[in-house]
Design brief:
By secondary structure, the protein is mainly alpha-helical. It contains 24 helices and no strands. The protein has two domains: 2-11 and 28-275, no CATH class; 295-531, no CATH class.
Length: 533
C-alpha cells in the first residue's frame, strides 16, 4: 500500500516531464527533445554556478587544513537550496493536497499517506542536493586524493543530509497551516512570509561574492565558530574530509533523530491538521444594496479573487511585479547609478535610457499569470463551459486579470524612470507604451498557449502553475520576445538606426501581434475552449 502511494506521488511529481496532461499524452519527438534540452540547460547552469563557487574556496580551505569546512559549506548551501526549493511545496503537498479527504476516507493509515508525501519531498530534495554536492565532490577530488572511506562517507552523507532541510520544511509548513487555520486573511499571511523568505534569499545571493571574500580572509576564525556552534555541519565535513566514523555517527544522529520526532508528531496529528479548519468568519453579511456587474466584470472579479487568495499562484506567476516595484524603489534610492556606470564608457552613454526601457520590458515578461489560468479550472472547467456566456469572455477575463495585476507596477516603474532619468520626449513615450504593450502581449499569449497545452490532471494547483508546459513555453517565449530583438539590434542594426526608431518598430510589431491574438481568441480560441475537458 505504501509503495503504491509513493508511486502515485512520484508519478504526479514528474508527470510534467514524462507524461504531461491527459489531453496530450502523445508528444512528438521534437517536443521531447526540447524539454530534455531545456532541463539539461538549467541543470548545467546550476552545476557551473556552484562549481565555480567551490573552485574558488577549495584550495584556500585545503591549504589551511580545513577540508572539513569545505564540505561543511557545501552542506549549508545544499540545505539552504533544498529548503528554499521545497518549503513552498511542503505545506501544499502535506496538508492541503486536493485528495486529502479522499485518501483519509479509505482504509489507509494516515502514517502511510504522510510517509508517501514526505518521500516525494525527499526525492525532490535529492535533486536539489545533487546540484550542489556533485560539483563540490568533483572539485574537491580534483585537487585532493580521494580515499574509499571519504567517498563512501560522502555518499552516506548525501543520502541523509536532506533530512535536515526536510525537517525544517515540515515544521515550517505545519506552522503556516496552523496559522492559516486560525486567521481570516490566510493567503495574505502566506504570501508575506513567502516573499520575506525570497527577499532574504535574493539578498544573500547578491552578497555571495562578498561573503566568500570574507570567508577566505577569516578562514580560521569562521571555522572555529562553525565547529563550536553548528555541530551537524562540522561533523558532516569531518566525516568526509577526515574519514572520521565518530563524526559520521554523530551527524546521522543530528539528521535522523529530529526528522523522526517531527514525523511521529505529524503522523499522530495528521488527521487533525489536514482536516481542521478553525478559521474566523470570512464574510460578515450586512444589509446593503445589491450590486450587479456585467458578465465581463463579474468574470474578471472571479479571476482576481482566485489569484489573490492563492499564495502559490502569486509567488510562482507574479514575482515580476515584485521585482518591478523593487527596481523602481532602487532607482529612486540609487538614481545616479545608471549614469555612473556609463561614465567609464562614454561612447555607450546614449544607450542608457534605451537600456532602461529594455530592462522594464524584460521585467514585464517575467509575469506568467495568464499562462496556467485555464489549467487552474481543473475539474470545474465544465462550469464556465456550461454557463450561458460567451466563451471568449471567459478567455479575455483571464488575460485581463494578468493586465490588471501587472500593468500598474509597469506604469509606476516607467513614471519613476521618467522622473529620475534625463529622457527625451520620444523616450518617455516609449518608456510608458512599449512595456505596457508587452504586458498586454504576454497576457494574451499566455491564454493562447494554455489553450493548446492545458493540464487538468493536477492533484494541487501548484502542479498546474509550476509544472504545466504552457507556463514553461510562455515564460521562455515571452523573455525571448525581448531578448531576441535586443540582440538583433545590438549585433546587426546598431549602425543603421537609432534605438528609439527600432523600439518604435517593435512597438508596432507587438501591437499587431496582440491584435492578432485578440482576434484569434474571439474565433478559433473560443471554439477550442468549448471542446476542452
Amino acid at each position: 500500500m505504501l509503495a503504491a502511494l509513493i508511486r502515485t506521488n512520484l508519478a504526479a511529481l514528474f508527470s510534467h516531464l514524462f507524461r504531461g496532461s491527459k489531453l496530450k499524452k502523445n508528444r512528438g519527438v521534437l517536443f521531447k527533445i526540447f524539454v530534455g534540452l531545456l532541463a539539461l540547460y538549467i541543470i548545467a547552469v546550476f552545476l557551473f554556478m556552484f562549481g565555480s563557487t567551490f573552485y574558488g574556496i577549495c584550495i584556500p580551505l585545503g591549504n589551511t587544513g580545513l577540508q572539513w569546512l569545505y564540505f561543511g559549506i557545501a552542506a549549508i548551501i545544499a540545505t539552504a537550496l533544498c529548503f528554499i526549493g521545497s518549503v513552498f511545496t511542503a505545506k501544499m503537498l502535506l496538508f492541503n493536497a486536493r485528495d486529502n479527504d479522499f485518501l483519509l476516507s479509505m482504509p489507509i493509515p494516515p502514517a502511510y499517506i504522510l510517509a508517501s508525501r514526505i518521500f516525494t519531498l525527499l526525492v525532490l530534495n535529492y535533486f536539489f542536493e545533487l546540484l550542489v554536492m556533485v560539483p563540490a565532490g568533483f572539485v574537491y577530488f580534483a585537487f585532493f586524493q580521494a580515499t574509499l572511506t571519504s567517498v563512501v562517507f560522502l555518499i552516506i552523507g548525501f543520502l541523509f543530509l536532506p533530512l535536515i532541510s526536510l525537517t525544517l520544511s515540515c515544521i515550517f509548513g505545519w506552522i503556516i497551516q496552523l496559522i492559516e487555520a486560525r486567521v481570516r486573511n490566510k493567503s495574505l499571511i502566506t504570501t508575506i512570509i513567502s516573499l520575506a523568505f525570497l527577499a532574504v534569499y535574493f539578498y544573500l545571493y547578491s552578497k555571495m561574492n562578498r561573503y566568500l571574500q570574507i570567508l577566505i580572509m577569516n578562514i580560521v576564525s569562521i571555522g572555529e565558530t562553525i565547529k563550536s556552534t553548528v555541530f551537524p555541519v562540522y561533523h558532516f565535513g569531518a566525516a568526509i574530509a577526515d574519514g572520521n566514523p565518530v563524526s559520521l555517527f554523530l551527524f546521522l544522529i543530528f539528521a535522523v533523530v529530529p526528522f523522526a520526532i517531527v514525523y511521529m508528531v505529524l503522523s499522530y496529528n495528521f488527521i487533525k491538521v489536514a482536516t481542521t479548519n478553525k478559521g474566523t468568519v470570512k464574510i460578515k453579511y450586512t444589509d446593503k444594496p445589491l450590486k450587479v456587474s456585467n458578465v465581463r466584470t463579474a468574470l474578471l472579479k472571479k479571476e482576481l479573487r482566485h489569484f489573490i487568495t492563492n499564495p502559490m499562484y502569486i509567488l510562482n506567476a507574479a514575482l515580476g511585479v515584485f521585482f518591478t516595484l523593487t527596481a523602481a524603489v532602487a532607482l529612486v534610492i540609487y538614481g545616479g547609478l545608471p549614469l555612473s556606470v556609463f561614465e567609464s564608457m562614454p561612447e555607450f552613454a546614449r544607450f542608457a535610457n534605451p537600456l532602461a526601457i529594455t530592462a522594464l520590458c524584460f521585467l514585464a515578461t517575467t509575469n506568467i499569470i495568464s499562462a496556467p489560468s485555464i489549467s487552474l479550472e481543473g475539474r470545474n472547467l465544465w462550469i464556465p463551459q456550461s454557463l450561458p456566456i460567451d466563451g471568449v469572455d471567459v478567455l479575455l477575463a483571464k488575460a485581463n486579470m494578468h493586465i490588471v495585476v501587472c500593468l500598474p507596477s509597469v506604469l509606476i516603474a516607467g513614471l519613476v524612470s521618467i522622473f529620475v532619468l534625463d529622457m527625451t520626449f520620444p523616450q518617455m513615450l516609449l518608456m510608458l507604451i512599449l512595456p505596457s504593450l508587452i504586458t498586454v502581449f504576454c497576457a494574451l499569449f499566455g491564454v493562447v498557449i494554455n489553450l493548446h497545452f492545458p493540464k487538468f490532471d493536477w492533484v494541487n494547483e501548484v502542479v498546474a502553475i509550476k509544472q504545466g508546459m504552457s507556463t514553461i513555453i510562455a515564460m521562455l517565449a515571452s523573455m525571448a520576445s525581448v531578448a531576441v530583438p535586443f540582440l538583433l539590434y545590438a549585433f546587426l542594426l546598431l549602425q543603421y538606426m537609432t534605438a528609439e526608431a527600432f523600439m518604435l518598430i517593435c512597438t508596432v510589431i507587438f501591437a499587431v501581434l496582440s491584435l492578432w491574438m485578440f482576434r484569434y481568441l474571439k474565433t478559433k480560441g473560443k471554439a477550442i475552449f468549448e471542446t476542452l475537458g
